[in-house]
Amino acid sequence: MHIQATSDTQHRGKVNIWTTVMWLILSCLLLSSGGALAETGPDQPKTEETQQSVATQTISINSATVNQLTLLKGIGIKKAERIVQYRTEHGPFKTLEAVTAVKGISLRIINQNREELTL
Fold first, then answer.
1. Can you give the pTM of this predicted structure?
2. CB-based burial, 72-105: b 16+ in 10 Å, e otherwise
């Protein structure tokens, strides 16, 4: 019986090695594809295609979701969350410049996105 336990342990070790090898291969393929297979999210760099899609739509600073806000230049997930939190606590913004009351949002960020932003 002791011999079989060793055999089971060896079998599990081989399975773990193969699982690890497969994950490494998949990771290498993903990296070599330039990330084209990966999902884009707020932590991913904004591509030219993403920026073009933002340029064709207008985002309301008073009703946009966190995900919509992250499409803007200079706005990551943390800043987007702060905007939504501030808006929830203080009510809608009266001007685009009023968004600078949110920590991390500068007039420069507002100006970079002025064409895409509305109240």
1. 0.54
2. beebeeebbebbbebbeeeeebeebebbbebeeb
